[in-house]
Amino acid sequence: MKALIDTCIVVDALQSREPFCKDAQDVFMLAANRHCEGFLTAKSVTDIYYLTHRQTHDDRTTRDILSKLCTLFLLLDTSALDIRNAIAAEVSDFEDAVMVETAIRSGVDCIVTRNTKDYMNAHFPVYAPADFVKLMAEEANGQTD
User: Fold this and answer.
1) Angle at CA 106, nearest 5°, toward 98 and 113?
2) Which residue, 91, 121, 127, 135, is the most exposed by fewest CB within 10 angstroms?
3) Taking the mean position of all CA atoms in its chain, how far away is CA 141?
């Protein structure tokens, strides 16, 4: 399964933010073990840099972290068409609408985020980290419908 991972999941894992880090780290492990293909948007990488640098206070350390992320996750570009479609989308949060449009155009299967309520009108599969981990376990065991 191809999953677009929201910025909050990455930051939860990197900064061990409780109570979210365990589920976020489980998503990382799925990608690391190639049980799913994990994707980030290029724009989210700039957000991750900013949020991580606030904690590390060191450019080199932060860039090293980003480099490791880029070996774990594939990057997706956001296009002008994604922006135009997001403007017209029913998703109330514009940044989330851009993620949905990028995901659809890029052919990923779902988005993994803590903020599932923001995607209520997305008409696209969106999972909380724990639900995604459970879904992947069920698929691995041949238990999906």
Assistant:
1) 50
2) 121
3) 24
Phi-psi region of 44 (alpha: psi -120 to 50; beta: other; left: phi over 0): alpha
- Helix H or strand E segment including 87: helix 80-88
Main-chain dihedrals φ then ψ at residue 110, nearest 5 degrees: -165, 170
Helical segments of 89-128, H only = 94-106
**Element spanning 13, H or E:** helix 7-14
Q: Which of 97, 108, 98, 104 is nearest to 73 (CA)?
A: 108
Q: Which candidate, 35, 54, 41, places its Cα nearest to that of 99?
A: 41
Look up residue 5 and give its two tokens: 């991972």
The whole-angstrom separation of Cα 107 and Cα 88 is 20
- Summarised one tens digit per residue, pLDDT across range 101-125 is 999 999 999 999 999 998 988 999 9
**What's the whole-model pTM score?**
0.93
The proportion of the chain whose per-residue pLDDT surpasses 90, expressed as a percent, equals: 92
